[in-house]
Amino acid sequence: MNTLHANLVNAFKKEIYPVTIEFDKKIMKVQKTGDLEGPGLPYLMPGFVDAHVHIESSMLIPSEFARVAVTHGTVATVSDPHEIANVCGVEGVHYMIDNGKKVPFKFNFGAPSCVPATGFETAGATLDSQAIKELLMSDDIRYLAEMMNFPGVLHKDPEVVKKIEYATQFKKPVDGHAPGLRGQEALRYISAGISTDHECFTREEAMDKLAGGMKILIREGSAAKNFDALIDLLSDHEDEMMFCSDDKHPDSLVEGHIDQLCARAVKKGIDIFKVVKAACINPVFHYKLDVGLLRVNEPADFILVEDLVNFKVIKTFIDGNLVAENGQTKIAGVSEKPINNFSAKEIKLKDLRFEKRAGFLNEKGRLPVIEAYDGQLITGKLDWQPHEADGIWITDPEQDILKIVVVNRYQVAAPAIGFIKGFGFKQGAIASTVAHDSHNIVAVGVTDDDLLQAINCLIQEKGGISLSLKGKSEILPLPVAGLMSNKDAYEVAKNYADMDNMAKKLQSSLSAPYMTLSFMALLVIPALKLSDKGLFDGERFAFVNQ
Q1: Tell me, what's the pLDDT at 295?
Q2: Which of 288, 312, 338 is the last residue before a domain boundary?
Q3: What does the radius of gyration of the chain's CA atoms come to, in whole angstroms?
């Protein structure tokens, strides 16, 4: 039996008071010892829960993710293994579950609902409704993960309908993903059984969905940042809001997690008890998680924080075990072999030439160009008078028009080529096999020579992130599905930070160049993206040259 004294932050009663708690694996006793906060005592809270995250985006396998997350007071995640499922199918989902069970952390995985996300790209696997049913039958699967195919929901696609029906049959919630959906269409989407959305990027959109009975997740990750647009809603909707990161790169995870959102919310004047509800309590109730909330006979999952301003975590406990103390993890690393699905062959310089073709020009005789925005998954669509040399369309780095390339990693095929604005590079190229959602190879660069080298070194390693400049290349290998490393989390974070800094030295103004790059092939987010099959208009849901 263990005992500790602290000021309990009781979000149910909206009170803070000193207590003595007794616990082993569960909370055995909570004894109130006074009415006023005890001076000098730490604050006792339920552990933080990330209500929607793709562990793969941390570039860490689950066991390594957990080692870092607990230092920030995170005790559980609601995790969509959509990324590895697109590469390795059901085997990839089980890989994540099995590895996560090897450490004292509460991963709650979902059944990926959209593998592949669309039929306009090449993925490594397909999970049909029968595969989803079999996953949902397992106690290891807690929910149906984000239903990105919102057109399929609205048009009652039979496979989509079956997947939602199976989730309902097994009494498991269905996560949503419908960026920009408003009004009657949003209500139709919700009425199909969709319970959450983490894609709202305006207050008005979130209000529409809240009015329809949906829970809204306030997302702040390494690329998509919607906290400032949505946080004020927590004051009036404390029972319908949660915090999530969605995608968190390793260096960002080392810096902070849900604890950072709590600190920012309090500094904006949000009531502490409402913050605790969003960060700790609401995900547990919504997803019916086996996570304790500091009540007798519940699992002893809790944290001690220094204050209720910065939320510096002193200790983290999961099932009564001390898993982190003063920023140091107590979770031991796990040796894990990689799995992968990679068949691409090295490309040649001629494969990267974008020959002038009238079919790619719009009615104005201009070429559609992707415009990337810092901190957003959505992109713009520009009309550009292309530059050419000897019948080849070329980049214009002075105007920040660079070349973007997507190479099929699952079979040998000609690269898809387009142009993009927003990266700001004046030289060099970067490439990645973290390329949502199918995780083909995506690259952006100034010259074909650098693009070729950045792409081919990834093909040689069968996955990773790379940078090429003037004949020299750097790479962070990601041997697990081309998405994750099986090495020490802090080593991966340092190596990633080094790569990120090198990319910024190419004069990129983006806060996270590799994270932004990874979403440039994400077809389900408008407006313009590039898949391995061509330039795609996410508003018309069709290829540009069709």
Answers
A1: 97
A2: 288
A3: 23
> How many CA atoms, within 13 angstroms, populate the side-chain half-sphere of residue 184?
0
Number of domains making up the chain? 2
Identify whether 437 is preceded by a cis peptide bond (ω within 30 of 0). yes
Q: Which of 468, 479, 463 is nearest to 446 (CA)?
A: 468
The yes-or-no verdict on residue 373 having pLDDT over 80 is yes
What are the angstrom distances between the C-alpha of 79 and each of 36, 204, 211, 299, 517? 38, 27, 26, 20, 22
Domain identity same for 148 and 251: yes
Q: What sign does the CA torsion over 223, 327, 496, 331 have?
A: negative
Let me know whether 280 and 362 are in one domain. no
Phi-psi region at 246: left, alpha or beta (left = phi > 0; alpha = psi -120 to 50): left
Q: Which phi-psi region, left, alpha or beta, contains residue 144 (left: φ > 0; alpha: ψ -120 to 50)?
A: beta
The verdict on 369 and 260 lying in the same domain is no
Q: Which helix (H) or strand (E) holds 417?
A: strand 416-421
- Collapsing DSSP states into helix, strand and coil, what is residue 227? helix
Cα atoms in the 13 Å half-sphere on the side-chain side of 452: 13
Helical residues (DSSP H) of 58-138, grouped into ranges = 62-69, 82-88, 90-100, 129-136
Shared domain for 235 and 363, answered yes or no, is no
Residue span of the structural domain in which 160 resides? 47-288
Distance of CA 152 to the CA centre of its chain: 22
> Is residue 357 one of the residues assigned to a domain?
yes
Question: How many other C-beta atoms can be found within 10 angstroms of the C-beta atom of residue 285?
Answer: 13
Label residue 326 left, alpha or beta by phi (over 0 means left) and psi (-120 to 50 means alpha).
Answer: left
Q: How large is the greatest C-alpha to C-alpha distance in the chain, in angstroms?
A: 82
- Is the residue at 365 inside a domain? yes
Which CATH number fits the domain that encloses residue 106?
A: 3.20.20.140
Encoded tokens for 156: 């009652």
Structure tokens at 145: 């993960």
pLDDT band at 383 (very low <50, low <70, confident <90, very high): very high
Residue 96 within any structural domain of the chain: yes
Q: What's CA 47's distance to the chain center, in Å?
A: 20
DSSP 321-345: EEEEETTEE-PPP------------
- Assigned token pair, 119: 């039929």
In this prediction, residue 546 has a pLDDT band, given cuts at 50, 70 and 90, of low
Same domain, 353 and 271: no
Boundary (domain end) residue, out of 259, 288, 317: 288
Q: Is residue 477 part of a domain?
A: yes
Backbone angles phi, psi at 165, to 5 degrees: -65, -40
pLDDT tens digits for range 151-206: 899 999 999 999 999 999 999 999 999 988 899 999 999 999 999 999 998 999 99
Same-domain pairing of 162 and 55: yes
185 and 51 within one domain: yes
Q: How far is CA 287 from the centre of its chain?
A: 18
CB atoms within 10 A of CB 49: 29
- Which string of b and e fits 148-175 if b means at least 16 CB within 10 Å? bbbbbbbeeeeebbebbebbeebebbbb
Residue 507 has pLDDT above 80, yes or no: yes
Asked if residue 154 and residue 223 are part of one domain, the reply reads yes
Bridge partners, 19 (sequence order): 6, 32
Percent of the chain with pLDDT over 70: 100
